[in-house]
Design goal:
CATH superfamily of the largest domain: Metal-dependent hydrolases
CATH topology of the largest domain: TIM Barrel
Largest sheet: 11 strands, mixed
Distance between the termini: 69 Å
Number of strands: 33
Structural class: alpha+beta
Strand content: 25-35%
Number of domains: 4
Shape: elongated
CATH architecture of the largest domain: Alpha-Beta Barrel
CATH class of the largest domain: Alpha Beta
Radius of gyration: 41 Å
Helix content: 10-25%
Length: about 625
């Protein structure tokens, strides 16, 4: 047995240690902590890009949307890059060689002589159709297939200054070299006209912001991208992280500045993260996680257009430092809950140790849940979350928000009884007076009411709140129902005496087992009876209870009953004898019960009266 106890203690210690280690490493994540509702002065309306996600049934699918091969300037053969991503466990892959559309993984790439000049003598092999279908169907991966994003291409393929744009789902830009070094717009415009969707790649390299973040202080730089995103809704966003974030380390600055101007126009822009892989060693640096009901190309497009995905990277140089490289599982989000009534957003996840909330380029809060009313001066049109841990960082798509001053609500009280005095106060304790109609015009906030009426228990400083829903509907009704003052009275035609000064109930009969024939209570109360050690007699406690609380307490007295059994007999006479002989101590209850002659003390006369009553030779008056 001792060995078993030692083993159990060792296992328990090991489990505690593991829990501490996991918490330290960020591998353990508690559920989102509920926050008290901050009222504030504004009514926030939050738009949730993840509103359509069924967190209990949808899958989380890993994607890379920016991949090169020897078809353009990569070092890995076309089919080798696909196989490598499949082996690495990816669920979605877009092949996006410069200026060359991917017409299918089993179609021999149509190489542009100039764009792919550097690799003119290298292999550019497609997959066989059979192998492509195996990958589609998840052969070797327990049926978890990898989806091909159709018609991937990196537009502006020969722009040395790298005005690069990734396009998907449209046959446009094939062998279009686009030597314009300054402008993203023509490629985006043409691709939208063809029915496709795009995102902009590694802006920091084009803007030189990777080495000088101040370039994003230039209003003309901001207005240039604002114009593109507002003109072309098919351009969904840009890469927040590219590869190991060397080129994009300051592009989250641009992102926040664009969000400030674009979201008020009625659209959102999404953040992407990609390997931009040109060789096998580039795989697994940055990716997206798509939330979808089923992994197929149609759902991938829908997720890209609606924002039901996350941008994830092992690197986030501006946030985590240039020397940081994620190790182990990356942070993930497993549930997002938006509560517009409270103005709150809550995240749940795993593999993280910090959640930061960003508005207007500034971290305004940390924790699983944010209440926007707690940060009213900092939140204008959006808030976004970034989740970090030992494995890297996960960027959550922005939540557009609008706000307006709260509207007042008309608050009415239904009163029972109708004739009562009602007093309403604000949070400062100031009395608020009703309108002529008897209602109260109240803003969002906390209040109290007090009520009193003759014959009823007063209710004092009962809190109530006027909240978002009340302001939205314009009215609120509060029921005020007072409880009658509990009463305990002698039953009609009974000899019961209820002495409220001494707390004694007497005038009762010997041998009773209830008070049904002796007392009455009103509808707001009931009796809780606690018999004594020897039964229902002297010393039995009677509590008058109302609303679960003891309102008054009494003690039953049977005159002549010294031992509390409810009868007058020889044992009671014996007890009085022992008290008179100094062998027992008296107490007020025993004196009151056994002072038969009414002189205020116990004496031989009382003992004799009790003895005679016990022999049925006399009767003790229970009412005096």
């Amino acid at each position: 047995m001792k060995n078993h106890r030692n083993i159990f203690k060792a296992l328990t210690s090991l489990m505690v240690c593991l829990a501490l280690v996991c918490a330290t490493l960020g591998l353990y994540a508690p559920p989102a902590k509920a926050l008290d509702n901050v009222i504030g002065t504004k009514q926030f309306t939050i738009s949730n890009p993840y509103a359509t996600v069924d967190w209990d049934t949808w899958g989380a699918y890993k994607a890379n949307l920016h991949t090169h091969s020897t078809v353009s300037d990569g070092k890995g053969d076309f089919r080798d890059m696909i196989e490598a991503y499949y082996s690495a466990g990816y669920d979605i892959l877009a092949m996006t060689d410069h200026g060359t559309i991917n017409y299918g993984w089993d179609v021999k790439p149509d190489v542009d002589a100039l764009i792919g000049a550097a690799n003119i003598f290298k292999k550019k092999n497609p997959l066989s159709t059979g192998r492509k279908n195996e990958i589609y169907n998840g052969v070797g991966r327990d049926g978890r297939g990898m989806t091909e994003v159709p018609l991937g291409i990196e537009l502006n393929g020969m722009a040395i200054k790298k005005t690069h744009v990734n396009g998907f789902y449209a046959d446009s830009g094939h062998h279009v070299r686009a030597l314009d070094e300054k402008d993203y717009e023509p490629a985006i415009k043409a691709y939208e006209k063809a029915g496709g969707i795009t995102h902009i790649n590694h802006i920091g390299e084009w803007s030189d912001a990777s080495s000088n973040a101040s370039v994003y202080d230039d209003p003309s730089m901001i207005s240039y991208f604002v114009n593109i995103f507002n003109k072309y809704p098919s351009c969904l966003g840009f890469e927040l992280v590219n590869k190991s974030d060397s080129r994009t380390k300051n592009d989250r600055i641009l992102y926040d500045k664009l969000l400030e101007q674009i979201i008020p126009t009625g659209r959102n822009i999404f953040g992407f993260a990609n390997d931009d892989a040109h060789e096998l060693s580039h795989i697994g640096k940055s990716w997206e996680i798509f939330m979808m009901p089923v992994n197929n190309a149609a759902n991938v497009r829908t997720a890209m257009e609606t924002g039901t995905f996350f941008a994830v990277s092992k690197y986030a140089r501006a946030e985590l430092g240039d020397s940081f490289t994620g190790t182990g599982p990356t942070p993930e989000v497993t549930r997002i809950t938006v509560d517009n009534a409270k103005g709150q957003i809550a995240l749940e996840g795993a593999n993280y140790n910090k959640i930061q909330w960003v508005a207007n380029g500034v971290v305004i809060a940390e924790g699983n849940t944010i209440d926007l009313n707690a940060h009213e001066s900092q939140v204008t049109c959006y808030v976004r979350a970034q989740v970090s841990g030992p494995g890297g960082m996960c960027f959550v798509q922005p939540f557009p928000v609008t706000s307006a001053p709260y509207q007042n609500a008309t608050v009415g009280f239904t009163k029972n009884p109708s004739a009562m005095t009602l007093v309403v106060k604000n949070s400062l304790g100031e009395v608020i007076f009703p309108s002529m109609s008897g209602t109260y015009d109240l803003s969002i906030g906390g209040y109290t009411w007090s009520a009193s009426a003759e014959g009823y228990i007063a209710a004092l400083n009962i809190p109530f709140t006027v909240d978002f829903n009340d302001a939205a509907t314009g009215n609120k009704t509060i029921e005020v129902s007072l409880r009658l003052v509990p009463t305990l009275e002698p039953a009609p035609d009974s000899t019961t005496v209820i002495n409220k000064q001494t707390g004694y109930i007497y005038g009762l009969s010997q041998g009773i087992t209830s008070l049904d024939d002796f007392v009455t209570t009103n509808a707001s109360s009931y009796l809780d009876i606690i018999p004594g050690t020897n039964g229902f007699g002297t010393g039995t406690i009677i509590n008058l209870v109302s609303n679960g609380q003891i309102y008054e307490s009494y003690t039953i007295v049977i005159k002549g009953d010294a031992n509390g059994d409810g009868f007058v007999d020889g044992s009671d006479s014996t007890i009085v004898s022992l008290i008179l002989g100094g062998m027992l101590s008296d107490d007020p209850l025993t004196v009151f019960a056994c002072d038969i002659n009414g002189n205020g003390v116990l004496d031989e006369s009382d003992r004799r009266n009790i003895e005679l009553a016990g022999l049925f030779l006399s009767e003790i008056d229970q009412t005096v």
